[in-house]
Design goal:
Order of helices and strands: EEHHEHEEEEEEEEEEHE
Number of strands: 14
CATH architecture of the largest domain: Distorted Sandwich
Distance between the termini: 146 Å
Mean pLDDT: 75
Largest sheet: 12 strands, antiparallel
Shape: rod-shaped
Number of domains: 2
CATH topology of the largest domain: Glucose Permease (Domain IIA)
CATH class of the largest domain: Mainly Beta
Length: 300
C-alpha cells in the first residue's frame, strides 16, 4: 500500500562563486524564513522607535537648553531691575530735595505734560499778552566791561534734568549774563521779564525742557522768537535768534537744538533773551536754571 509522505517546504539558495570552486547550496525551511521575516520586522520597528526616541530626546534637550538660557537672561534682568529700582529710589529722594529747594513741594501725580494735558484748554490767552508785551532795555550793551556784567552761566550735569523733563531747568546757552530779571508785574513798562545771555553768534540754543513749539517766527521786539509750551502752565521764550531750527507744533526734548544765537529784532549784539512764564505770570529764570548750573561771579 502506497502512503503519501509530507515534504518539507524549503527555499533553495544556490551560490556560484566566480572562481572554479564548487557551487554551494543552502536550504532554508519556509517556517524558519517566516521567523526571520518576523525578526527582521521587529528589528526594523526597534530601529524606527529608537530613531524617534533619539529625535525627541535631542529636541527636548535643545528646548531645555534654550529654557536654561532664557532663565539665565531673566535672572540677569531681575538683577538689573533691582539695581534700577534702587537707583530710582535714590533719585526720588533727590527729587524731593530738589523740589523742596525750588519751593515746589511734593510732586503731584496729576502733573500734566504737553502730550497729556487736555487739548481743549487754550494756552494762547496766557501767551498773547506776554508776546505783545514790549521788552524795555533788553539789548546786550557792548560798551559794558566784564566787571559790569553779572556773571558767566555754565550748564551742569545735574540729575534734575532727567527727573523733571517738563520743568525748564536746562540752560539754553552758555555765556555771559548781561542783564538780569527785573520784577514780576506785567504792567510796569520798564520791567525786564527775562535774562539776557551774551555769546558767540551762531551758538546752538537748546530747549530748557520737553515741550511743544507753539510759536516760531518773527516779532518786532525779540526778532526771531521761539515759544515752547511745557505743560502745567509753563512757557519758555527764546528771543533774538539768528535762525530758528524748527517750526510750530514741533515736539522737542530737553536739550534739543531749537535755534542759533543771534541779534535779530531790537538788539545790538548777539545774545539770547530767555524768559519763563507760568499761568500768565513771568518767573525769574535763575530760580530754575541757577539751582543746577554754575554761576561764576565776576568778582570771584
Amino acid at each position: 500500500m502506497h502512503t503519501n509522505r509530507k515534504h518539507k517546504q524549503s527555499i533553495q539558495i544556490l551560490i556560484i562563486p566566480d572562481d572554479k570552486d564548487e557551487p554551494k547550496t543552502f536550504s532554508i525551511p519556509v517556517k524558519r524564513l517566516k521567523f526571520y521575516k518576523f525578526l527582521a520586522a521587529v528589528l526594523v520597528l526597534h530601529i524606527l522607535v529608537g530613531i524617534f526616541a533619539y529625535y525627541e530626546y535631542f529636541k527636548t534637550y535643545a528646548k531645555n537648553k534654550e529654557l536654561l538660557t532664557i532663565n539665565s537672561q531673566l535672572e540677569e534682568s531681575n538683577k538689573k531691575i533691582y539695581r534700577l529700582a534702587s537707583k530710582v529710589k535714590g533719585l526720588e529722594s533727590s527729587q524731593t530735595k530738589i523740589r523742596t529747594a525750588l519751593g515746589l513741594g511734593n510732586l503731584n501725580v496729576q502733573y500734566q505734560t504737553p502730550a497729556t494735558e487736555n487739548s481743549s484748554r487754550s494756552v494762547m490767552p496766557s501767551v498773547v499778552p506776554a508776546l505783545l508785551q514790549p521788552r524795555q532795555d533788553n539789548k546786550s550793551r557792548p560798551e559794558e566791561t566784564i566787571r559790569d556784567r553779572i556773571g558767566f552761566l555754565k550748564r551742569s550735569k545735574s540729575v534734575v534734568h532727567n527727573l523733571e523733563r517738563s520743568m525748564p531747568t536746562y540752560l539754553p546757552v552758555e555765556g555771559v549774563l548781561t542783564q538780569d530779571y527785573e520784577g514780576t508785574s506785567l504792567s510796569p513798562k520798564g520791567k525786564h521779564h527775562g535774562i539776557d545771555i551774551a555769546g558767540k553768534k551762531g551758538l546752538l540754543v537748546k530747549a530748557a525742557a520737553d515741550g511743544i513749539v507753539i510759536f516760531a517766527g518773527w516779532t518786532i521786539d525779540l526778532g526771531n522768537l521761539v515759544i515752547i509750551y511745557h505743560g502745567n502752565g509753563f512757557f519758555t521764550y527764546y528771543g533774538h535768534n539768528q535762525e530758528i531750527l524748527l517750526s510750530r507744533n514741533a515736539a522737542v526734548k530737553k536739550g534739543d537744538p531749537i535755534a542759533l544765537l543771534g541779534n535779530s529784532g531790537h538788539s545790538t549784539a548777539p545774545h539770547l533773551h530767555f524768559e519763563i512764564w507760568r499761568d500768565g505770570m513771568p518767573l525769574d529764570p535763575k530760580d530754575y536754571l541757577l539751582a543746577f548750573s554754575d554761576l561764576k561771579s565776576s568778582g570771584s
